[in-house]
Specification:
single chain, alpha+beta, 2 domains
């Protein structure tokens, strides 16, 4: 399933659950809010949307959804603007993860790359100029000093690993990713 198919499915689900199409929900634009998380919170608190639907509407309202971008390459290039030194780290991670199986899909967004199988199992995100975050879905696994549990940086991952360079992509990290990949099948 590609990005456009997933978006269509999410929009159909939004309309099914609320009885209102996306055209209604871009009411978020009229709220005057300009930040993604502000819009997401507004939609959840004021309109009772769940996270996935509120997130989709916020992306649509801001025009920052993957479907609005010209290409995956454009999204990835934009995400590394000012953080170019992390591109090799991203590429090494992406190559290592793709080796898990032909069913791995990398779906770039504006600020991160969603890594999916049947469902999302990781997030690649150059968060700051000094830190690259790897979000991993390892629900039920206790955290460690390196594998931070309950990572608040992104609500779509249960754990986070802060990376600084390519050497951080080691056997331990790949083992965690492989576990998440298997659980996402």
């Amino acid at each position: 399933m590609d990005v456009k198919d997933m978006e269509a499915k999410m929009l159909a689900s939004l309309e099914e659950k609320t009885g209102k199409p996306i055209a209604h929900w871009v009411v978020a634009k009229k709220s005057g809010l300009t930040k993604h998380m502000q819009i997401l919170k507004y939609l959840k608190d004021e309109h009772g949307l769940r996270y996935g639907h509120a997130n989709t509407v916020a992306f649509k309202a801001l025009g920052t959804d993957a479907a609005s971008a010209a290409s995956d390459t454009e999204l990835v290039d934009g995400m590394f603007k000012g953080k170019e030194h992390f591109r090799k780290l991203h590429d090494k991670l992406a190559k290592s993860i793709k080796a898990f199986g032909k069913d791995v899909e990398l779906a770039p967004k504006k600020s991160y790359v969603s890594v999916r199988r049947a469902k999302q199992f990781a997030i690649l995100q150059p968060s700051t100029k000094n830190r690259f975050d790897l979000g991993i879905n390892l629900k039920g696994q206790p955290g460690t000093a390196r594998l931070e549990e309950g990572a608040a940086f992104n609500g779509m991952a249960s754990h986070r690993v802060a990376l600084t360079n390519e050497k951080d992509v080691d056997a331990e990290l790949l083992r965690w990713l492989k576990e998440a990949y298997k659980a996402a099948g």
